[in-house]
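[Solved] Which block belongs to which protein?

Original post:
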Amino acid sequence: MSDTPGANPLSVHPGFTRMFAPGRLSLGVYFPIEVFEGSNPTMANQVELAQRAEALGFAAVWFRDVPLLDPHFGDIGQIYDPWVYLGYIAAQTSTIALATGAIVLPLRHPLHTAKAAASVDQISGGRLVLGVATGDRPVEFPAFGRDIEERGELFREFLTYFRQALAERFPVIDSPFGYLEGADLVPKPPFGTIPLMIVGHSQQSVEWIARNGDAWAMYPRPPHQQQHIIAEWRQATEQAAPGVFKPFAQSLFIDLSTDPEEPPRAIHLGYRLGRNVLIQLLTTIREIGVSHVVLNLKYGHRPAGEVLEEVGEYVLPLVTGI
């Protein structure tokens, strides 16, 4: 696969290029940027922490879409509606990418989502990278009148409608989500398109994701396992779009020790470890072909601001080259 920087039509999109470049690793951070137990974070000082992440050189802040609190499933993300919160954070930052991980498409309508996404991309100066998924919390689907067993098909139909509504003027669309004719969706994306990042498999094959996504984000795995998944991704993207750079991203939970040399110990979807060990891990992750790692600080034992500062001062310069 060619890694020519100009090969991707998204090479001029500010959010996409802030997060992704061939041969480079960037880091992001999930909202809420805090340590918390149970379901509900405090959401305190999030603007200041997002602004500090931007100043330190983090590439992106990530927003989750969790419509309902299911006490049997897990936490509720950053609590607030993702589109409201995206607009709020966009207004108080200037360069950091705004990534979603991920908007649950089957529970929404393509026109509402297209208008919201294009609006955020417009007001932020092209900083939205739209991560999308099918959703996996069973309690949510009957609440929205959807069949969880149909979420994979709904996901495909949604993206067809969504992309056509954004790309065409006065399109004619006949879809399970409705029939559109004689009206147009505004605004259109300021850079012609919005980067679509498929999160997880979303009930689709890797080949489908390579044809229809601009990037793929997956859960963390040991590097030797992740390397095999990335090789499969590279093969699929080369067949789907020869010469086009389609990056691979992953999440990583960290509990950063005060001891820089503390060896890694597994926690849920990540590790407790020292910063020098984190540098080694991220260097390996970069070498196997990951373009972006989003850090989640929920399971840490130190204040999130303190961890941001340490990662920004000691880790970012060595693993990203900023």
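(Second protein starts here: sequence line, then its structure tokens.)
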Amino acid sequence: MNAYVFPGQGAQFPGMGKDLYENYPAAKALFEQANEILGFRITDIMFDGTEEELRQTKVTQPAIFLHSVVLASLLGDSFKPEMAAGHSLGEFSALVACGSMSFVDGLQLVSKRALAMQKACELQPSTMAAVLGLEDAVVEQVCAGVTDEIVVPANYNCPGQLVISGSMAGVEKASEALRAAGALKTVPLSVGGAFHSPLMEPARVELEAAIRATEFKTPVCPIYQNVTAKGVSDPARIQQNLIDQLTGAVRWTQTMQQMIADGASSFTEVGPGKVLQGLLKKVDRQMPSSSAQPA
């Protein structure tokens, strides 16, 4: 079975999407439509901006979404997904590419999501850190042991790599305890705040209203969603899982394992970079994977 996966924040790079814009009129039309919807020329930042400019949350999230969705639209008849998933922000790209949401609705939600997350980050200083070389269960146990601060497992990226998220003090305390418990190392991430943690509750509340007001349809194939790591086709459930995603963990390791158990025979990454192909290798070294190419 063909599985398609869509990357999240961190996959961006200067110049992303420029080749698609210059070589495909249909892609150019979508990019220009996005500039209009967003109210600023995001293409200028994507094509000619610096890494720092691209790193602004209000730019990063729509940029990665745009690159992924435009690329998916150029795959033509070769795009026959039998299952799909997206890492965090990438879940929105997957839903649009697989027909559950319109391009315009998807872009508007991603833009609102980025701004709501930015606002939540400004309310309370918070952070994330990658934990390398420990079993997931040990990380969960250590986080649960920090009771006077907020810190939770946020991104289950692949076996031996789990990102924790929470208040500054919570992440620091947990990082110390995790190193003592045998982690190879803990790496502070240069992110705006504690994504996929209870500290994103103000953003979740803000985004919930927008998601509830958006029309969702049955996608062409099951979407393996972050919060459940299971394939979902029911529009109402897709909607609820998307709302829960902001404060819930990204269960990417479990998602890859579930897709493979359900019959995935190859994975195609649709969007900038090869981050997800790298993570897949840690889950199943033998599983074929590739980057999507326009038809």
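Accepted answer:
You had them paired correctly. Confirming on the second one: The chain has a mean pLDDT of 96.
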